[in-house]
Amino acid sequence: MFEQGVLVAAVLGNITIASFAYLKNPQRALNRLLALAAVVISAWSVVNYLSLHQPDPSATLAYVRVVMFFAVLINYCVFLLLKTFPSPNLTITRKAFWGVTGFTALVAGLALSPFLFASVTVKGASIQPNPGPAIPLFLIHTAGLLGAGFVSMVRKFRRARGQDKEQLRLVFYGVLVTLFLIIMSNFVAPLALRTSAFVGMGPAYTFVFIGSIAYAIIRHGLLDIRAAVAKSVAYVLLMGVLGGLYGLAVFSISALFFGGTGMNAGLQAVDVALAVLLAFTFQPLERLVQRLTDRVFYRDHYDSQQVLNRLSTILVLEMNIDRILRDSLKLLCQSLHVGFGQFMVFKDGRIYKVEHFGPLPHRLMIVPNLLKLDRGILVADQLGESEARKIMASHDIRLSATLKTKDELVGFLLLGDKLSGGIYSAQDIELVQIAAKELAVAISNARAYEEIREFNATLQDKVKHATGRLRTANRHLKELDKAKDEFISMASHQLRTPLTTIKGYLSMMLEGDTGDITETQREFITHAYEGSERMVALISDLLNVSRLSAGRFLIEQKPTDVVAMIADEIRQLMPHATAKGLYLKLDPPKGRMPLVDLDENKTRQVIMNFIDNAIYYTQQGGVTVRLRLDNGNFRVEVTDTGIGVPEDAKSHLFTKFFRAGNAQNVRPDGTGLGLYLARRVVYDQGGTIIFESSEGRGSTFGFELPINGTPAHAAKSAPQPTEEKVPTHV
Amino acid sequence: MSDTTDKTILIAEDDPFISRMYEIKLTAAGYKVMVKNNGREAYETAKADRPDLLLLDINMPELSGLEVLAALASDGFDFAKTPAVVLTNSSQDADRQKALSFGAEYLVKAELTPKQVLEIISSKLQAAEQA
Q1: Residue A581 neighbours by CB distance under 10 Å
Q2: What is the value of ipTM here, to two decimals?
Q3: pTM of the model as a whole
Q4: Is the distance from CB of A36 to CB of A21 less than 8 angstroms?
Q5: Contacts of A55 (CB under 8 A, 6+ apart)
Q6: Does A518 touch chain B (CB under 8 A)?
Q7: Is residue B56 within 8 Å of residue B86, measured between CB atoms?
Q8: A552 — contact with chain B (CB < 8 Å)?
Q9: A730 Cβ partners below 8 Å, 6+ apart?
């Protein structure tokens, strides 16, 4: 009853699957082949059963011949299936096809004839067919076809990638399991356990084979199949090992101790002992088998949480975008056992960074193609015929993951084939999904950081560039300044020559060299003469300023009678003071004034400038010039009762071209050079300027000079540390 | 002005307006005046006629006033006995230094009136006489 049950179930199952495969797509040769194989196997199963249950030897012989006939056909079908799969159409050449078909027809014909099995010998329940002369031919046919099919499949399996590989693997498992089961029940069981009870299971095993192929064709890509296959293989293996060991033990013990005779009490005891042993050995053996099968089926196993932890470590510790890309890509590719991986990172809609793992791709994705993959995680094998799939295929990409933050598309993670050739598992996809989110944020941050870094670098470059430009501009300005000084110097000389004539002749007229002149003439000529004098002074000032900036302002000191020098200046300026109704008096030092080392010309100009200014800016009262000898210093102070210097002008008073507001009103034609030069002359001789003033009440201008020449700090044409600020009283 | 003097003054000046101005002033003061408008003639006159004082411009044709001084110096001319006054509008320090190195007075024309020049010349001549 059991045998019939299995037979019926197997036949029904096979026929169902075959019909299903055929109806699913009758156009495909593969589906038709599968249906044919199922039918042939089913027929074989039925005839095989019948052959075992015939009452007389001649009927048995006839059935055995039919069994062999179908066996030949099964070999033929299996060969074609293995050769064709997973291609939907026959891949075998026409010539080979007809050759194999012809050979098969010959062997099948012989199988029905007495050449294969001449007769059968029936010994009780055992039926022993007696081989004929065609047996070697049958063996060659079987071994040849099955061997060729198997080799073809292994070769395809090694070349295959992705989905194809997974399908081939399934068929491979199917064949392997079927083979294993048949070996276990038809050889191991009868030999070791001395029972042919499992031989009847034969048809059920064919179901595994046909089932696996059908499954591969119809519902490929369902990933749990591997777990189911792994588990079933593990259990069958375990049972086989246990059964084998147990049976072998029983067999050998009974043979050794009881001489192979039937049951007795001793054997019962051995059975009990072995049962206990079995109970104890079951678990370790199960673990061992589990480990073995795991190694085969889950070679590329990994711990997702561990991978994610390591990824987080990289992303947290690293700020450099290049290193983030490199390290995380390496981690993912190695964990997922992927041969080739790539990051494409965007910035402003363009590809900003590309990172590779494994061999460089023969061509890079372009942005428009990438954007067509912007749909989360795409697995090529799970996509129907679509543009995205074509794009991925043309770049050998199996998995594409968009890296997206809340605001923007950061880039893509593209992965190639798994090294195993298998497809991406649910675990893989889940891992990539989580990693993609973390990567998007981290890459976005790193990119921003990189931008800031680049901006800083650019800024530094810009500053450097600007500094360079300023230097050039400064050099040009210096050249211009020099040219200006040279121009002033030259122009001044040219101006002086006609001025010499004007001033000279005017002075001679005033001196009476041209005879008597009227008072009016004298008055007019005096005006003209004074004008020329002012111009001479102006040119002199300009020249001195130009000399100062050209570094050619030299001080030449010699012992000078300062009292006589100042008295002379006062005498020359007296007419001006008198004309304005002002007093101009000298307050000489008590006692004798020694000779003072100074540059007479320049110092004389300074004093003249002070007195001239004092007269100019005073309307009432007058000017006192005070000379003193004080602690080895010669001091001169010119005090007036004039308009004074406004508070806000005091700090600028001694700077070049500066003129106080009230002074400008009184004397619009002033140059603003006099005090500037005065300070320079005094400073270069190691002296200090004296200046105090209150607006509206008068001022005191003066200086103090060491009697014995220039002290060390006042080297000739030394730069002036106090260009802008002058102490109001020293 | 003094009218009793037989001193001769050589004026080397290429600008006729200026040379005339000094000529008038010095002549009026009683000096004999020779005017030359280029450096070479001035040098030859100075050597040949032995004036009592040289009044030399710097920028002149043929020879500059400073070159005249240099040539005379190499001829063994004694500037202590025959004072030289460089009277110029070039106020370059190099020129000034050079003039001073020959023991010559260095004056800027525009800053002085002919009368002031006359006074300086007179005092120079007095000093030379005493020397």
Answers
A1: 10
A2: 0.88
A3: 0.40
A4: no
A5: none
A6: no
A7: yes
A8: yes
A9: A688, A689, A690, A704
